[in-house]
Design brief:
Blueprint (H helix, E strand, L loop, with lengths): L7 H25 L1 H9 L3 H7 L13 H13 L5 H9 L2 H7 L8 H10 L9 E3 L22 H10 L10 H17 L9 E11 L7 E2 L15 E3 L5 E5 L4 E13 L7 E8 L4 H15 L5 E6 L6 H9 L3 E4 L32 E6 L4 E5 L23 E4 L16 H7 L4 H12 L10 H24 L3 H4 L10
Parallel strand pairs: 2-8, 8-9
Antiparallel strand pairs: 1-4, 2-6, 3-4, 5-6, 6-7, 10-11, 11-12
Protein name: Transposase IS4-like domain-containing protein
InterPro entries: Transposase_11 (IPR002559)
Organism: Syntrophomonas wolfei subsp. wolfei (strain DSM 2245B / Goettingen)
Length: 495
Amino acid sequence: MLGYWRTHDDYQLWLKSKLISLVPEHEAEIRFYGSLVEKVYVLNLDPLKEIVAPMYSLIGRPAHNQPELFRALVVMLHCKTQDPTKFVAVLRSSLVLAAICGFEGQTPGVGTFYDLLARLWLADAPQKAVKVPPSKGRKRPKSGDKLKPKHPGIIKKLVDKALQGRVIEKRPERVLQAILKECAVIPSSKLGLLGNPDNLAISGDGSPVRTGASPRGKKLCQCPAQGIYHCQCERSFTDPTANWGWDSYHEQWFYGHTLYSITSADSFNDLPIYLRFVQGSRHDSVTFVFAWVELLKLYPEFKFSKALLDSAHDVYDIYRLLNANRTQAFIDLNKRNKGHNIYSGPLTVNDNGVPICIANLPMLNWGFNNDRCRIKWRCPHYKDRSKCPKSPECSPSKYGRVVYTKPDWDLRIFTPIPRGSKAWKAIYARRSTVERTFKRILVDYKIENARCRSNKRWFWQATIAALNQHLDAQVALLKPSILSEVGIKTISKAA
């Protein structure tokens, strides 16, 4: 059962008094951890209690220090440590670090941390898999290309299920996603760090994460003793969900998982609002369907007005999925899909959906009519029709030739804000915010160094790193004065 839970206000008061008592002997160490002290001071774990309470029995021995344990995981990632075993040793050697986490007296052991990690993951502990060594199996993609989905037509099937409101998949990580929401995303939104929640633009993408497990596994057969070293017998694999994927940026194969993130594109702190780990071979367009359905369920209080995605998501069914939520799609065109538009009307249009007049010139966009849900296009020489070589054959109107296009003719090419326009490019430029999210999580907080061997451990690491990222932005905005209140005059940029 869940034991005593110290509230955030009580923790703040206790931390101040504890640091004041430690200042005479440990001032230098407190100053060194100055940025960490400010971070945990603004981290409100009160919403965490309601989320994790159903994970504990109503009877039995009380589980104490649960908010302190979670806070310690945040501290661990801040200190660029990924192994709880090593962090426990560091924690026991530092009174200041133990106080920052909120521990009084003896600090918890390694098993206590792993128990918390397992308790909040809604699936059994991953077991070693016994199987034939996996192979890449598919042809190496061309330069800049990504692997195609394994099953043709799978995106259409998934989108059809999503639009019917059917549950696509259960997720063992849903408790951690709720924690990220309540303890990081919602506080950042209230501070205005995400943008307008009623008109939010999001950016989504995937990034490869190499597992610490071997792709060759451990041999269980006796073939090596017989001089056979390249057999296809079953082997033991410590990361059962990892497989081969294609890293299109580095143009090489990798063995592991894909971290998919949806980031607020309006956030200039590149703050993630949703994370998901999938197999390395899964295509980003497939992952997005799952992610989008889960995102809408997770954040009913947000209105997602724009979705900024790369060319891997350039699939008609994804446009259909976004349009059902009245979300404008800003998706880069996939070169492989050139010439495969579904529009076959009387107008001649270019790849960006701009009508071409009889003089073979692109017409000028004259805005989007919300009432009639159509885009107005005007003659490129409307100011001086005498400059047009086809003027005698064109419209006799003084206003010039006008045509209209409707997005529902072809959601991919007739976008409300025309492709290639300055407005479209300005909005799409914010897509790179998700790339910076990956840099913060994987590089700055060094979770790639963890070399984990399970989806559970990877997701825990990424979630705590994302929470730290939100706290960094909140501290920069709020500028808490706890250090000056406990008698520390200078703030070190270390730690």
